[in-house]
Amino acid sequence: MTALTLSTAGAATLRADALVVGVAKGVKGPALAPGSEAVDKAFDGKLAAVLATLGATGAEGELTKLPAASGLKAPVVVAVGLGPVPDKEDAYDAEALRRAAGTAARALHGSKKAGFALPAASVEDAAAVAEGALLGAYAFTAYQGGENKLAPKDAKSKDNGPKLPLAEVALLGAKPRDKAYKAAVERALALVEEINRARDLINTPPNDLYPESFAAVATAAGKEHGIKVQVLDEKALVKGGFGGILGVGQGAERGPRLVKLAYTHPKAEKTLALVGKGITYDSGGISLKPAGHNETMKCDMAGAAAVFAAVVSAARLGLKVNVTGWLALAENMPSGNATRPGDVLRMYSGKTVEVLNTDAEGRLVLADALTRASEEKPDAIVDVATLTGAMVLALGNRTFGVMANDDAFRTSIHEIAEEVGEPSWPMPLPADLRKGMDSPTADIANMGERMGGGLVAGLFLKEFVGEGIAWAHLDIAGPAFHEGAPYGYTPKGGTGSAVRTLVRLAERTAAGDLG
């Protein structure tokens, strides 16, 4: 994990591999952002003109490297675009700062230390820069850099391994001795460490991450951070009647698990339950996915990874709210033991479900976990899942859908997600779509109308939420796993989508802001 410090040094005197400054898109060309004053002075006040000559405009995501002027200790200056100049001085959008810091950190992979002289006059700005830099510095290298046994055994041909992330971020322009700044940076560090752990889990290949090994990771984290962890294995799931989780996992050699993580605070007045879909590999089961759709299905446990990261973050931050996480873990594999289309499962709730498509498995494991979570009467439940391709078709690859049984709760989740920089959109649960899941054989089918499939999945889950409990469903199928080129602080692969939303929800609940 990249180190983060609040530096007492000035930009001109900091000894580092590079200095990062912000540049905005002005009417007459690039305009330097606050924080760049000392660097501009070293360029005799001509830094903006030099950047313009090099083709910089200040557009978001733009990055320009140039040799540092003689008055600076760092040898390189990295100018990163912030987008349009804000209407009010110093009023840069937090998400623009996050993305700019992330862009710079990605460009500095392999460096030991960089000073970030981006706008940091407020605690909120400093926190945004810290988050963005740490998120952007992420790299998944666990399976790279092994010994090449075919290479000649001489020093010149030695494999130096992958380029490692930026080792240290020195945040400039903040107030190192101010308690509020220190707290904001400590929060950013704890939060991003857990987001990056979620990213690691999502990126881990399914031969190494499966229900039992995921449960072991959760158990170890629980011991480290004072979280009570309970793991239900196959025998316990059979005894408890968790037909949904068992039905999905019965085709795999490695059995399913239901993991409960409970963080409690002695002064908590509210309890949040978070439920995560944890399909560690999704082949589609008997309803096998077509060619080209299997290669990234290690990411189908991203919802469980987000829930896990959020519970650990709440514990590390000492939030005055009880947070319980439920990880519904299974592999969805085809075999002679696998659930067949047409089978009927008796769920933990007692309801029966006719399985019309075994690739609609996420809703089955979530249904059992939602019922179990409801038994503890939390004040609210939020489930997170890479649930439907239909949601990707509706909202694209960067936005997750929010459904709920309470309009006010749905609005709050949407507003929180937007606040922390996670694009989301409120989606309805039309009652007329429920009829499509009527079954002549069971209480309900796991499939309904094809059109509006993401909403149908939400309606299915709603059936398994306890009466009188506020519930929201986040379908993160689009943003959970990024297959394109990295941008901002978003890497290729697992993103850690929804963690920031869940943690901010927990913070607001602790503060009594959600009623």
What topology, given as strand order, has the largest sheet?
8-9-11-10-14-18-15-16
| Major sheet attributes | 8 strands, mixed
Mean pLDDT metric: 96
Structural class: alpha/beta
Indicate the low-confidence ranges by residue numbers.
Answer: none
Give the overall shape, derived from the CA principal axes: elongated
Return Rg in Å.
24 Å
Would you report the number of β strands? 20
Q: Kindly state the percentage of residues in helix.
A: 25-40%
Give the arrangement of secondary structure elements.
Elements: E1 3-6, E2 18-26, E3 29-32, H1 37-42, H2 47-53, E4 63-67, E5 76-84, H3 94-107, E6 113-117, H4 123-136, E7 168-171, H5 179-203, H6 211-225, E8 228-232, H7 234-240, H8 243-249, E9 257-263, E10 271-282, H9 302-317, E11 322-332, E12 344-346, E13 352-354, H10 362-374, E14 380-385, H11 389-395, E15 400-404, H12 407-420, E16 424-426, E17 444-445, H13 453-462, E18 470-475, E19 481-482, E20 493-494, H14 499-510
Parallel strand pairs: 1-7, 2-5, 2-6, 6-7, 10-11, 10-14, 13-17, 14-18, 15-16
Antiparallel strand pairs: 2-3, 4-5, 8-9, 9-11, 12-13, 15-18, 19-20
Helix pairs in contact: 3-4, 4-5, 5-9, 6-9, 8-10, 9-14, 10-13, 12-14
What does this structure look like?
The structure is a single chain. The protein is α/β, with parallel strands linked by helices. It has 14 helices and 20 strands. The chain has an eight-stranded mixed sheet with strand order 8-9-11-10-14-18-15-16, sandwiched between helices. Strands 1, 2, 3, 4, 5, 6 and 7 form a seven-stranded mixed sheet that branches. α3 runs parallel beside α4 (about 125-135) and α8 runs antiparallel to α10 (about 360-375). The longest helix is centred in the middle third of the chain and has 25 residues, at about 180-205. The mean pLDDT is about 95.
